[in-house]
Amino acid sequence: MKRTAGIHHISTIVGHPQENVDFYASILGLRLVKKTINFDDPGTYHLYLGNNKGEPGTIITFFPWANAYQGRIGSGQVGVTSYAIPLGTMNFWEERLAKFNISTEKITRFGETYLAFKDIHGLNLELVETENGEINDFSFGDITPEVSIKGFGGAILLSSQPEKTGETLVDTLGFEKVAEEGEFIRYQSYGDIGNTIDIKQTASPRGQMGVGTVHHIAFRAKDNQEHFEWQQHVANHGLHVTEVKDRNYFNAIYFKEHGEILFEIATDPPEFAHDESEKTMGETLKLSNQYEVYRGRLEKKLIPIEIRDLDN
Fold it and tell me: InterPro entries this protein is in (predicted)?
């Protein structure tokens, strides 16, 4: 039986790139660890934000299209992305979000308290206190490592066939079904962060891809050899899986599970410091060899962005 450690990254569609980095870097205090382009649409960014080292299990990625149409969150998508924060920091985050006029709501699920809110473009987010995971050694503005977001806590999936999606998590990805409560079933992997998936059992209207929605959720493979094994393993479970795609910072395979959610399995290596130093990650636009010849043209087309300290 193969088992993933949990979430590798979550990729989303958002609006204006400066609004995006203002929210996630300046307000939430995530580090921009890679600024590159969307290989399928090279005139737009692909931005990666996570913990100080850009480690798997902490990375949220963005395809930002200014003036694009708004999507609709629904079945066939990740409905909510949960972030893990250190114990005793909920009040800090509630006050910080209020400072930036972000409405929040406290909800309880499986005995845990979540601080729920939306980002600037409509994505559903939560913060949950946990002792799991390492402290994120990153400071920005008023955010210090003592309160900094550690990485993913987990996600809520909205499936058109919740039972089938649960079967895929257990039988294919190696999650364990651990609890049921109300309209949710909880599954866990063995990792320290990004290890919790809740599937909503009640039906949701079909989602529509666009700004404010999650494009796909990726799960972890420890190396390239295991990645090839995952490809065969997924196919053996009757799911159509893609060829291996080189994403420069990891290799990826994709498949749609029976509940219509796009799943990816991504390798932990080589991570984000292989084409620039860990200290300078995210400072300059990084391009693969095939696009480097077009750098001047791309830099003129891409909307300029900067990481701004909004606390001062």
Answer: Extradiol_RC_dioxygenase, Glyas_Bleomycin-R_OHBP_Dase, Glyas_Fos-R_dOase_dom, VOC_core
Please check whether residue 30 is in contact with residue 49, taking contact to mean a CB–CB distance below 8 angstroms. Answer: yes
Q: Which two tokens stand for residue 208?
A: 């529509």
DSSP state of 3: -
- The three-class DSSP label of residue 92 is helix
Listed as ranges, residues in the chain with pLDDT below 70 are none
- Domain coordinates of the chain in residue numbers? 7-301
- Edge-first strand listing for the sheet containing 112-118: 105-109, 112-118, 124-129, 77-85, 151-158, 196-200, 184-188, 176-181
What's residue 310's pLDDT? 97
Query: pLDDT at position 203, please?
Result: 83
CA 263 to chain centre: 12
**Structure pTM?**
0.97
The DSSP string of 194-217 is S-EEEEE-S--PBPB-SBTEEEEE
In b/e form, how buried is each residue of 25-42, taking b as 16+ CB within 10 angstroms?
A: bbbbbbbbbbbbbbeeeb
Q: In sequence order, what are the beta bridge partners of 197? A: 155, 187
Res 123: pLDDT? 98
Query: Do the strands 213-221 and 262-267 form a parallel or antiparallel pair, or are they unpaired?
Result: parallel
**213: CB partners within 8 A, 6+ apart:** 12, 13, 71, 72, 73, 77, 122, 123, 207
What are the φ/ψ torsions at residue 277 (nearest 5 degrees)? -75, 155
Measure the CA–CA gap between 73 and 241, rounded to whole angstroms: 24
Take residue 5 and report the two structure tokens written for it: 């450690």
